[in-house]
Design goal:
Blueprint: E1 4-7, E2 10-13, E3 18-24, E4 33-39, E5 46-51, E6 58-60, E7 68-73, E8 78-83, E9 92-99, E10 112-113, E11 117-122
Parallel strand pairs: 2-11
Antiparallel strand pairs: 1-3, 3-8, 4-5, 4-9, 5-6, 7-8, 9-10, 9-11
Length: 123
């Protein structure tokens, strides 16, 4: 069982930056690939970015390439989402997710989800 808690969301102006953190419980964090998804009002939850167990490989949605990066610190059981050059269309609730089977953009890969953190980008 893994519990995930996101933090770092907030209100930022367009062009600004935020860093989200996701802290995981348990001693097996390094056995999970991690991902971030987001859900805007009235829209489906969509994939943003993911990282493999070791942190050596990442996968991005086209909409965030060149702006968002993901990293993890397995010693601290934490994954990070650095968001730069934010746009109003990035406004959403951001969810952290853990996968024991692999990583990628498919929601069903992910076994555990956090409660989400709101990111609002003003124009």
């Amino acid at each position: 069982q893994v519990q995930l808690v996101e933090s770092g969301g907030g209100l930022v102006q367009a062009g600004g930056s935020l860093r989200l953190s996701c802290a995981a419980s348990g001693r097996t964090f390094s056995s999970y690939a991690m991902g971030w998804f987001r859900q805007a009002p009235g829209k489906e939850r969509e994939f943003v970015i993911a990282i493999n167990r070791s942190g050596g490989s990442t996968y991005y949605a086209d909409s965030v390439k060149g702006r968002f990066t993901i990293s993890r610190d397995n010693a601290k059981n934490t994954v990070y989402l650095q968001m730069n050059s934010l746009k109003p269309e990035d406004t959403a609730v951001y969810y952290c997710a853990a996968s024991s089977t692999g990583y990628g953009s498919i929601r069903s890969l992910y076994n555990y989800w956090g409660q989400g953190t709101q990111v609002t980008v003003s124009s």
